[in-house]
Amino acid sequence: MKFRVTGLALAGLMASSLILPGFAAEAEETAAEEKPTPGIYLDGELAETLEFRLYNNVNYITIESFVSMMDREAIVEKEDGTVVVNSVSVADVIDMEDASEDGEDPENSLPLSEQEESGDPEPGEEELEEEAAQANVVEETLTITAVEGAKYLVANDRYLYVKNGLTSIDGELAAPVRVLAEIYNLDVGFDNETDCVYLTRQEDADAYLESGDTYYNGDTLYWLSRIIYAESGNQPLEGQIAVGNVVMNRVASPLFPNTIYDVLFQRNQFSPAISGSIYRDPSEGAMISAKLVMDGAVVLKNALFFNAAGLNSYASRTRPYVATIGNHAFYA
Q1: Which domain holds residue 93?
Q2: What's the pTM value of the predicted model, to 2 decimals?
Q3: How many CA atoms lie within 13 A of 98 on its CB side?
Q4: DSSP assigned state of 185
Q5: Measured on CA atoms in the order 226, 232, 235, 241, is the torsion positive or negative?
Q6: Of 201, 236, 261, which marks where a domain is finished?
């Protein structure tokens, strides 16, 4: 009897050894089928036409392939490492019937009763169609300018920082996925386990990012560009951005005033405010640096002080050292 039990147990173990690997293989196959293909997805669909590559741990996408995915009718011009994009999107269509129900003729700003009394001649059919087409469609426009090696690209007069610079993929100019997504108002998500990037259109968002004409606050741009020019106009781009970061970090800090004007003119803080050099017209580079800062460019996240590198100052003696950029040392 003992041998019989042992024999049955061995038979069971042998059967299990045959069955379990089968189950394991099936489970692995199912998991592989469920695991998404590594790549970039737009609204849940794999964007197979995108040309991209990992560069300094950042996903870069060729501008042309990204724009073509988002705007098939976009015009892309390329010359000597520069890419210029022009695109138009229909943002809204006015419902002519709804306008009529409100008591107005959509082809005439006068109420219907007054139109009849005015005695104006009725427009021809072709003229009506042309006016209706113009009245019905509200368009959004997009212009992008990108130059290989530059540390920003310009979209609708917005200056978007590219820390590692614009590069090329197989001869095509490329930008970080997050920068391109910002232009088209897309949310960005990343799954480390699957190496998938997920782009999602924002609900009720405009087709393109807001234009710089309305996005940049005039007062902030005025003072920020002037202090950057006065303090670091001869410094590299990162040094100018860092000075702008210090100013905006102070505005956000409870230790300093909460407006850019009050921060700059706080007693004994910024020498250009004392000497009057802050009132000089800024260079184009300082204006660009100010716009980059206002659009989120960060070189030094926590810096609150700076002075000439090597200078024996209050900050150098009492504040934590952060970095030296160009001729300036920065402190938290």
Answers
A1: 45-201
A2: 0.78
A3: 4
A4: T
A5: negative
A6: 201
